[in-house]
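Fold this complex.
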Amino acid sequence: MKAYLALEDGLVFEGEGFGAEGEIFGEVVFNTSLSGYQEILTDPSYKGQIVTMTYPHIGNYGINPDDAESQHPWVEGFVVRELSPVVSNYRSEMTLDAYLKKYGKIGIQGIDTRKLVKHLRDFGAKKGVLSTTERDPKRLVKKAKESQSIVGIDLVKEVTCKQPYAFKEGLLEGFEWGRANQKIFKIVAIDCGIKKNILRKLNQHGFDVKVLPASATAEQILAEKPKGIFLSNGPGDPSAVPYLIQAVKGVIGKAPIFGICLGHQILGQALGGTTSKLKFGHRGGNHPVMDLATNRIEITSQNHGFVVDVDSLKKDDIELTHLNLNDKTLEGLKHKKYPLFSVQYHPENSPGPHDSDYLFDRFHELVEQNA
Amino acid sequence: MPKRTDIKKILIIGSGPIIIGQGCEFDYSGTQACKALREEGYEIVLINSNPATIMTDPGMADRTYIEPLTVEFLEKVIEKERPDACLPTMGGQTGLNLTVQAYDKGIFEKYGVELIGAKYSAIKKAENREEFKRAMEKIGLELPRSGFAYSVEEAVRLADEIGYPVIVRPSFTLGGSGSGICFNKEELERTSRLGLDYSLTHEVLIEESVLGWKEYELEVMRDIRDNFVVICSIENLDPMGVHTGDSITVAPAQTLTDKEYQRMRDAARKVISEIGVETGGSNIQFAVNPQDGKMVVIEMNPRVSRSSALASKATGFPIAKFAAKLAVGYTLDEIPNDITKYTPASFEPSIDYCVVKIPRFAFEKFEGVNSTLTSQMKSVGEAMSIGRTFKEALQKGLRSLEIKRFGWGADGKDKIFETELKSREDYLAFAAQAPQDEALKDEISRYIAKPKDNRIFYLKYAFLAGMTIEDIHRITHIDPWFLVQLRQILDLEKELLAAAGDSGKKKTLLKKAKQFGFSDRQLAFLWDDKESAVRAFRKSEKVEAVFKLVDTCAAEFKAYTPYFYSTYEDEDETIPSDRKKIMILGGGPNRIGQGIEFDYCCVHAAFALKEIGYETIMVNSNPETVSTDYDTSDKLFFEPLTLEDVLNIVDREKPVGVILQLGGQTPLNLARGLVENGIKVLGTSADAIDRAEDRDKFKKLLDKIDLKQSPNGIAYSLEEACRVAAAISYPVLIRPSYVLGGRAMEIVYDEAALKKYMAHAVEASGEHPVLIDKFLTEAVEIDVDLISDGKISVVGSVMQHIEEAGIHSGDSASVIPPFSIKPELVSEIIEKTKQIAKELHVVGLMNVQYAIKDDVIYCLEVNPRASRTVPFVSKTIGIPLAKLAAKVMAGHSLKDFGFTKEIVPDHVAIKESVFPFVKFPGVDIILSPEMKSTGEVMGIDENFPKAFYKSQDAASAHIPEKGKVFISVKDGHKEKIIPIAKQFHELGYPIVSTRGTAAALNQNGIPAETVLKIVEGQPNVADLIRNSEVKLVINTPSGKGPVLDEAKIRSLAVSFNIPCITTLNAARAAVSSLEAVKSSGGLDVKALQDYHPNLKIAGSNPAGTIERETMNR
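Structure:
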């Protein structure tokens, strides 16, 4: 089955389709992680995006029930150089191909993914269409051009939970170490598309977690009497979720806050800063981030297209805590008066290195101090 | 953190000669370390006994000591140079072991030298199995169950507890020497006895076997602030049980989920922290049970390694260079990533291609050796290849191996046991018949059950015989993911086969075939066509190679370093400049006969051509080398050295010419093909090469300049061979018509031996005839290296071999200047060599070998290319011959550099060869026309005896100061051994001999104790060796034949690490050196820079001229 990937600026690739058939639109981005495609597929932050894996062999170890970050894949489409025809792993229960079919996700393989990645790097993330039904390159490019941009679009409402729920589940046994905090605090986690491993980490680090939909107001959040508030990762443009920014403004100073990724951007905006879109974003598991308090470097898991503008933040109130050493963009901040901090990257990893686990401890300490 | 200013002078320890387990990778790491630290303004002192390395070039360090890597000489260097610090992690296991020994003797403390990179405690913890085990337990990581044994009995008791099979691992050895898998008590007793002996601490680990588990390696780095990064993960295709150096390995890991991978990463971080490697690189090996994911730690090396060199080349992240910078206090974030420039080194490389490393073996060199792969390394080199997929990389890797294969079979070279598939018809017939042949299937099953050097090909035959992925997995434990990849290649191959004659089908399959790594040669085989026709067809279909960058970051950032590999996709990333370019073809994987010396020459060429304004393009497939460092040339293409692959690069880059003569025989073999494709070969012409290689033309050439050859003839059949041999009279030297490194070359003493030889020689040479030369007994052999610019020729050096003619020149000890040849003969040799050069219009380097018998000079062979002695000669005379050669090939004249006359040094330098016998227990160590050495050392001093003594020490053949000498020589030597034995006796060595020799000695008034031969009963000489009662063995072989007793003695001596001398000349040199060293009261060390004080260091001299005050002759 032939499949086509066309970008709004005219670049078209012909490859072989896998997974489902059909036609989908999304922002075409790339991820440089060598492993962890299942976590990537199921990370709700990829809503609205067609994800290209830079590593050529994908699907080698199949899909297993434990490594999913949510109930189902969220990517719009998946681009790989070569799909593995078999799976080889003791935990695998399904092939990647079958998995994408099951959830109606379209994949394409056999294209020069490096060319695509270089293009995205040089010209920025692009709107694109992935199709197994349309074969005319011109029409495809036109469709891509006319498709909706993710800028200004509220994708959070697509991925957030419908109802509040309590989460209680430890870390996957045998894969991660780390001490469990004995003192348990109740917190609220705002679900903008929260990854399961964040919830597991929060549990393990001593939090009793109540998950609220992203539409929760400040009053609703505070009504839970949380000892801390967690703002999750999520897809798309932070400016497109003013209601959440509003809610966060209402809880600042009322309870310790920890934000990750979109949560960090929301917090940035709530604190009066602005956000903007990176050319092609950070997606991978190898970005060096320096903790400016200790000068230690952590290798981080990243997935974001937007960033908090450093210069927009009021320096009197806000301390920059983490820096991306590759492009010197802001990776973390904390407030000088209020008990709150956030990071742009993913301390819950999944996929990615476990270097940043200490941030959950930091949150625990902050909650404990303010309890 | 800024770099340290409290240290100014740093000592770097090299790894010594190339041996199995330690290849060029430590030249790469050492060279990088020297460069990186000098860049920071440190003064570098280097000790390394290997002259063939780039790192021992006088320009690489401030003070270069080519001296033996022993505690004694290390202390002398430290005493003389007084370095502030010592970096011990660049010299492999040799460097670490030497460091530990010196530390234990208090030498570093005595002279106030700080160990940087890895502290003593960290080295001990990582290297001592028991301490390592305790450390792992402490951090909650599992190891295979194990225990230490200090005697064979203990080993047996432990194995009973753990259960067979068990693995024996001696502590403190190199490349897994002496380790092995034992399935029963008998094997265990044998292996543990050897292992205990190999171990510096007389200790072996008896370990639970994790045979069949998946094997992984992580290459990691850590800095002084505890920042930690993984540079590369590696997964072995061959599961646990095969030494990782002998496994086909793949980067990155393929079959680990992120969860499993990150667990491994966490474990690696804990290991490096617990072991206490504060700064630098380490590699950590893991085994994973494929059934349940259970992970155990196998071992860690607290230093750079073969794997770190591989990881550096695989990712573009120069581990050794950065390790050196971390050792002086920098942190990872302070070091910029060379490739991306604007991002720091504190990240983990991501790659968007697949890398395959395939080991290169040389079993054919060692008669009777067991070629089953075990946990003891046996390969002599490796090739690396890069492709966008595993399939592509694997096929490229197989054709990089220089084993005359062009991919994963279907290249006309397939051989299933005795069945050869030389043509498409053969292949079709086999494929049709094999599935019905149950006996064949059984035979293949049995064959692939044990890992072997050629098992990868037999996996294909297993498929062809109808075995399934499940079958093969069950037998071999190779992960199904790899097997499916192989299966995909085979499935496409079937389609390709079927498409022969159907050009439409061929067109549709062409690109996919190239993406699967099929070479044109394979396609030609499958389509019953010519390789050139396939190429033309491909070009007409616009299916051409594109080149992609190795950039450390999977294209996330712009890359500035032009390091390329080929693939078949849409976008090409090369940007050919309009500068004048010269392409240098490297030597491919290390093997016996072609090693680091040629890499040395290629690297020099790159440096030299840069100096004179050319853009340099390096092509090579050996990941261990300096030539494949992206810093060495302007552009690096990591590619197989086949005509097809080279032409692809030429098409793209259009160099003004190609240099072939520096990379050994590999590139030279491409000369004809390149010329036919209109590519200019720089330097000596392809015709001249042909003239030296073609028998008849060569004869005419020698006749013309009145040079003798020993009587010879050619034979196409056994009868003819017998006739020729009889006519020129025995003994004769016999060899296939076209051979490398003395392959299958043998001296035969009678017709019976000749007949025996012919039986396997034909196999070695296919349909080619054999050449028969009169063997010149007890002749002196001479090696000459010459450089010519086409007008002037200068002999670099005339070298006299210590061993007589008949022993491969690569295996002989070689002396500069000649020590026992009449000066007029030396002059004549120089003159004749120049005439040959003139006749062949040599531009560049040439090597000629001569024999002298009864004052008559015979020419043995002419090689119109760089020889393996070029670096040795260059370092001895202080002239960088390879550099000059590159420049003359580019049109410069020798006059430009002021090098127009021979230099005769007033010191003596001896190149001694180093052999891998210790890895092949039971193999006779006797030297012959077939080359067997893997590396070389150099001894340099003011006179012959001292230089010889050093050369022996450096080659780990330390001549003992006292103790019993065992002397047993063949009848023809009984008289000649007398004066030698007398000297030993006078120096106070008790002598013990077998009956014949003892009688001869006693008759001549030399007391010699008699000991029984092995066949004569016990106690015999073997017991003396086993009990270490004998400290030196002198045993000359009585010729090929029933010499089992002798062979056993020799191989036993090697096993028990007792120096064994097998020629009279070497025995003579040994005793004379002992005498000299004893009388002069010890040896001194001297830096290369002091031997050549007037030499402006090559490389620091942009004009490329050599300034030397006197060119004394």
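Residues 8 and 299 of chain A are 33 Å apart (CA to CA).
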